[in-house]
Amino acid sequence: MLVKSDLVAKIKDYFELNIYETKVWLALLGKGSASAGEIASISGVPRSRTYDVLESLEKKGFAIIKLGKPVKYLGVKPRIILEKLKNNVRAEAEERFKSLMNIKETTEFNQLEELYNVGINPVKRQDISAAIKGRSTISNHLKEIFDSAKDEVIICTNFKEMKLKEKLFLDTFNTLKKRNVKVKVALSGNPEMIKKLSENLKINIKPVEVDAKFFIIDRKEVLFYLKKESDKDDQAIWLSSEFFSEAFANLFEIAVRE
């Protein structure tokens, strides 16, 4: 069986198999059912290794043994394998999520928090300025400062950005409203589309011509993006400065009044 080497390499990576497992599985799929000897001949895998490889594939669910004599193997349908792997990843992620959530209840985590808050050189939030890189890191930090908001959140971004994350922003706005945190939003973009989005999010959004992306929390902290369009390499600057934040907030107020 002639199978292109680039296909073997990609299937190997997609399904996290080794090179022999990949060749044997592809041979089974192409043949339908085959004995270990036939698989060795078709796949090019040494006969002395074929039995071990078939046993490994059976344990992983990529192959099944056909009843009867001589012993033959069947390759499991790729779509079934994909669904199984997806379910495994989902289950593993859920288990990992639960494990991470439980960490917060441990003595060790409390000790970490104590070390951060009252260590030899404790971090003073008002003294912090930092560059944050990566979409997920920025999003996580943004969630943290949203959670810390007590009085007011100011958001200035563009329509496309908020529309892409509409569900996330809706949940965020609902949470902030329940905590009686005032939310002010301004977006650049098409005014009619912004009006419709405002209705969907059930919050007043001011259309502006300010092409920027920043968030101000309680007029004490500012997070502003260094790129217009979001991507995995996003970069942002976070400043915890009442003077700078108040100045930024005042500029925002001027922009939305115009």
Total of helices: 11
CATH class of the largest domain: Alpha Beta
What overall form do the CA principal axes indicate? elongated
Q: What separation lies between the terminal Cα atoms? A: 71 Å
Helicity range of the residues?
55-70%
> How are helices and strands ordered from N to C?
HHEHHEEHHEHEHHEHEEEEH
Instruction: Please state how the strands of the largest beta sheet are arranged side by side.
Output: 4-10-9-8-5-6-7
CATH superfamily (homologous) name of the largest domain = Endonuclease Chain A
Number of domains: 2
Determine the strand fraction and express it as a percent band.
15-25%
Low-confidence stretches: none
CATH topology of the largest domain: Endonuclease, Chain A
Number of strands: 10
Q: Do you know the CATH architecture of the largest domain?
A: 2-Layer Sandwich
Radius of gyration: 28 Å
Helix- and strand-based class? Answer: alpha+beta
Q: Strand count, sense and closure of the main sheet?
A: 7 strands, mixed
Structural description of this entry:
The chain has 258 residues and is an alpha+beta fold. Helix content is 56%, strand content 18%. The protein contains eleven helices and ten strands. The strands form two sheets. The chain has a seven-stranded mixed sheet, with helices on both faces. A three-stranded antiparallel sheet has the order 1-3-2. The protein starts with a helix and ends with a helix. The model has no long low-confidence stretch (mean pLDDT 86).
